[in-house]
Amino acid sequence: MARLADGDPEAARKLAACHMPRVLATSYRILGDHAEAEDVTQEAMLRLWRQAGDWRPGVAKVSTWLYRVTTNLCMDRLRRRKRQMTAVSDSVGVETAAFASNGPEPVDPGRPVEQRLMEADRAAALHAALAMLPDRCRAAVTLRHLEELSNPEIAEIMETSVEAVESLTSRGRRMLAARLLGKRDELGLG
Question: With contact defined as beta carbons under 8 Å apart, do 36 and 113 qualify?
């Protein structure tokens, strides 16, 4: 961060290469929309560049700080989506979905076609089920089970207690299980 603050372009490239893929993946998993995830990634990285001059080593890890910024940006977008959907629903008088998806995440083309199709179906089902979770549950489940962060890290990122994270992830897992229960055989999980 100090090298970035001094204007070192190699430090900027290294930080981007190290953190952008995770920020993009996290954003996509929370938002379910690739274009919005790219926007969040750009904004989070811009905030990191701006923060470089004020960065204090030892206060927080760069990755934890970035997860917090990313999660907050995603939550802001989800709230904005809900307000827009409510306004559209109120003005048109119909219910609309509050989650848009540009499709499942890309899969490795090196695996057999059947395996890739099954994985794509599973990813699509997971994204659809995640989309139905309350925002904070979705963020907690994504950070815990897809990003594989610890509960204390998630608590710091979400600015809440470890107990609240445990509750959010537990509730989110139960809701996911209930939504995916009838699809076990269809998704090759039975």
Answer: no
CB-based contacts of 65, cutoff 8 Å, min separation 6: 48, 51
Cβ(88)–Cβ(98) under 8 Å? no
What residue type is 94 in one-letter code?
V
Q: Which of 37, 44, 75 is nearest to 62 (CA)?
A: 44
89-122: pLDDT as tens digits: 454 444 333 344 444 445 455 667 776 776 777 7
* Structure token digits, residue 29: 């998993």
pTM value?
A: 0.66
Side chain identity at residue 37, one-letter code: A
Domains of the chain, by residue range, sit at 2-183
Name the CA dihedral angle for 9, 14, 16, 19, rounded to a multiple of 10 degrees: -150
Q: Give the residue carrying structure tokens 């379910």.
A: 32
State the greatest distance between any 2 C-alpha atoms of the chain, in Å, as a whole number: 56
- Domain topology for 2-183: Butyryl-CoA Dehydrogenase, subunit A; domain 3 (1.20.140)
